[in-house]
Design brief:
Blueprint: E1 4-7, E2 14-17, E3 21-22, E4 28-29, E5 40-43, E6 50-53, E7 57-58, E8 64-65, E9 76-79, E10 86-89, E11 93-94, E12 100-101, E13 112-115, E14 122-125, E15 129-130, E16 136-137, E17 148-151, E18 158-161, E19 165-166, E20 172-173
Antiparallel strand pairs: 1-2, 3-4, 5-6, 7-8, 9-10, 11-12, 13-14, 15-16, 17-18, 19-20
InterPro entries: EGF, Notch_Cell-Fate_Det
Keywords: Disulfide bond, EGF-like domain, Repeat, Signal
Disulfide bonds: 17-26, 89-98, 161-170
């Protein structure tokens, strides 16, 4: 492998090394700007450079990204890789780092439509419901049978009945 031009001399060989090589016979490989992929410290060497990788990287040129505690957001298993880690997401999550929460059957309490998202799902509630997961029941015109005042709530509305009425929806008239 040629790393320069050498001429026999007396008493020694004289070499003019190509760019990236040094030494009396061009045997030492010099560090280039990207020798350790900007992820470690490079030392020139024979037959190649040596990289001491920064924390979080490994490999002869620091090309492998190691898994960190939060690589998959604690929502999956991680495998170190090049050029990045690979996540296998737990059920209910997706995305390259398991960052997207998938909709479950009860994400919106069967009271709205769900869209997967990061950091959580988004619910668009059906008429009569509100809240981040459609957990709050809104008052309707007849919630308290027009016999009291209504307050929206979870899991149902609350009625404060007018005088002479009782029951959860003011459905019972007093005698």
């Amino acid at each position: 492998m040629s790393r320069g031009a050498c001429t026999d001399g007396d008493p020694t060989v004289t070499c003019v090394c190509d760019a990236g090589y040094t030494g009396s016979t061009c045997e030492i490989v010099l560090c280039a700007a990207d020798s350790c992929m900007s992820r470690g410290f490079c030392t020139a060497g024979d037959p190649t450079v040596t990289c001491v990788c920064d924390a979080g990287y490994t490999g002869s040129t620091c090309e492998i990204v190691l898994c960190a505690a939060d690589s998959c957001m604690s929502r999956g298993s991680c495998t170190a890789g090049d050029p990045t880690v690979t996540c296998v997401c737990d059920a209910g999550y997706t995305g390259s780092t398991c960052e997207i929460v998938l909709c479950a059957a009860d994400s919106c309490m069967s009271r709205g439509s769900c869209t997967a998202g990061d950091p959580t799902v988004t619910c668009v509630c059906d008429a009569g419901y509100t809240g981040s997961t459609c957990e709050i029941v809104l008052c309707a015109a007849d919630s308290c049978m027009s016999r009291g005042s209504c307050t929206a709530g979870d899991p149902t509305v609350t009625c404060v009945c007018d005088a002479g009425y009782t029951g959860s929806t003011c459905e019972i008239g007093k005698l």
